[in-house]
Design a protein that fits this description.
Helix content: 25-40%
Largest sheet: 6 strands, mixed
Radius of gyration: 14 Å
Distance between the termini: 31 Å
Structural class: alpha/beta
Strand order of the largest sheet: 3-2-1-4-5-6
Oligomer: single chain
Number of strands: 6
Shape: globular
Length: 149
Amino acid sequence: MASIDIRNDFIRYINNEIRFQKQHGNGCIVAKMNSLTDKNIIMNFYEASQAGVQVDLIARGICCLRPGIQGFSDNIGVISIVGRFLEHSRIYYFHHNGDDRVFLSSAELMTRNMVKRVELLFPAASKRENKKMTGHMNMSSARKTPTDQ
């Protein structure tokens, strides 16, 4: 179970990718969710992009982040997967310098989910499950996670 303020957990994982990008040049984040509206998370994704981290966002609904702005968010791609079925999977992938971290969560990256609310954020159970989850995300993404390349 995640902390009551799950936002700090996500920011910590994003900051780790920024650090790995600066040290090793391999920062990568892929997030699959329904909505992204939390300003603090969005600002951290912008910071990651500016540091060179590759960020792929797969969103079904609202996404308040503006990708592809030269020098600001040019390392961020957003794919919309609006379809006839509501997409419920929320999968968050962090390359973590080759030691992939894949999390499943009940939380959307929305302010109402980030503060004063109990949400689940838990790691995939094994390397096999990591691969299965990143494969699921890669079906929706134009870019493959480093593990699957």
